[in-house]
Amino acid sequence: MDAVRSRSGTTPGALNAFARFVLCGGGVGLASSFAVTALASWVPWVLANAVITALSTLLATELHARFTFGAGGRATRRQHAQSAGSAAAAYAVTSVAVLALYQLVVTPGPVLEQVVYLAASALAGVARFAVLRLVVFARTRPQRGGAGRTALPLARASAPAAPAGLCRAA
């Protein structure tokens, strides 16, 4: 796996980033699943899921900016906004999965609810990883020129060239 240079060193390759994503995002997701269940005992499940999703997305985006994708610092507002978009899609997936469970099972127990929620979260998480890696925390890659060669930046001269040295015919 190749790595791209950033101001903090290197950006991890895809497998390394996915492992970090699973640890950071999975840890936040697992804690969120218990928080949703606890909060849902006081408010409707869909509202509990929305509140916990918003809070966990803020936390996870910061973790992903700092550790998962090697951005080397805090997440920008743009990254938070884009991450929120992918989290909204994940929220929809988890909500539909749990609401479907309630249509199929009149009173599912908390264990079955957790299994369905975590399975839907895992599915949405894989898609979310792709969006975060390829869009939200994507690094600018070198431009490709002509026959597949990487365009190189022009070297800066240490001193300005004399006009006669720029064009020998002059």
Describe this structure in words.
The chain is 64% helix and 6% strand. The protein has helices at residues 14-39, 45-68, 77-104, 110-136, 163-166; strands at 4-6, 9-11, 144-145, 149-150. A two-stranded antiparallel ribbon has the order 1-2. A two-stranded antiparallel sheet has the order 3-4. A hairpin with a 2-residue loop joins strand 1 (4-6) and strand 2 (9-11). It starts with a strand and ends with a helix. Residues 1-9 and 140-170 have low confidence and may be disordered.
Task: For this entry, give a set of tags.
disordered N terminus; disordered C terminus; mainly alpha; two-stranded antiparallel sheet; two-stranded antiparallel ribbon
Secondary-structure map with pairings?
Blueprint: E1 4-6, E2 9-11, H1 14-39, H2 45-68, H3 77-104, H4 110-136, E3 144-145, E4 149-150, H5 163-166
Antiparallel strand pairs: 1-2, 3-4
Helix pairs in contact: 1-2, 1-4, 2-3, 3-4
